[in-house]
Amino acid sequence: MPLIQITEADHNVVLDLRYATSDNLTGKPVYRHPVCYLHPIAERYLRKAVDLAKPHGLRLKIFDAYRPPEAQWIFWNHTPDPIFLADPRKGSPHSRGAAIDLTLIDRDGTELDMGTGFDAFTDLSHHGRTDVSVEAQKNRFLLLGIMSAAGFDFYSMEWWHYQLFNARQYPLISDTALPLRIME
């Protein structure tokens, strides 16, 4: 099944695709082209999440969605941490277009406090932490509620990661299969 490109104009989101910049765990751009894709079911759920956030005066800011298996290997070779990175031999939900990393932003485009930054490989990134500020806890619960009500499952170790239920049932998709490649 072909992936759907996610754009700011068509989906009313903000794209901050970190792996196309040096602001990521490797310290250098991994994606050559900042293009965002999702599986059609995940894209439909994303639209619902956008609609659920809107009455609260909030929008979604996307850090990553589809991630080529080729990129997953780069991350794994840099930081082989099975808590925060899927072993590429098993495949990541991201590499199926079935996962999205994101946060909430206010009307001014300011990210809500979530207690840690995106891709903070620390226990403080886990859902349900009471040792982050009360405001961060509320914001995480708000994001969790929006994304769950939209149809997504969550990953308990990362407040920013949401995916389709049974995400590994979807096939891995190589960068070479994309209409506009991310890696080259």
UniProtKB/TrEMBL annotation:
| Cofactor descriptive note | Binds 1 zinc ion per subunit.
Give the cofactors, semicolon-separated: Zn(2+)
User: Carries keyword Cell wall biogenesis/degradation?
Assistant: yes
Q: Which residues bind Zn(2+)?
A: H94, D101, H161
Query: What Gene3D superfamilies has UniProt attached to this entry?
Result: 3.30.1380.10
Active-site annotation? E158 (proton donor/acceptor)
Q: Which reaction does it catalyse?
A: D-alanyl-D-alanine + H2O = 2 D-alanine
At the top of the EC hierarchy, this enzyme's class is hydrolase
Q: Does the keyword Ribonucleoprotein apply?
A: no
Which family is this protein grouped under? Answer: Belongs to the peptidase M15D family.
Q: What is this protein called?
A: D-alanyl-D-alanine dipeptidase
**Gene coding for it:** ddpX
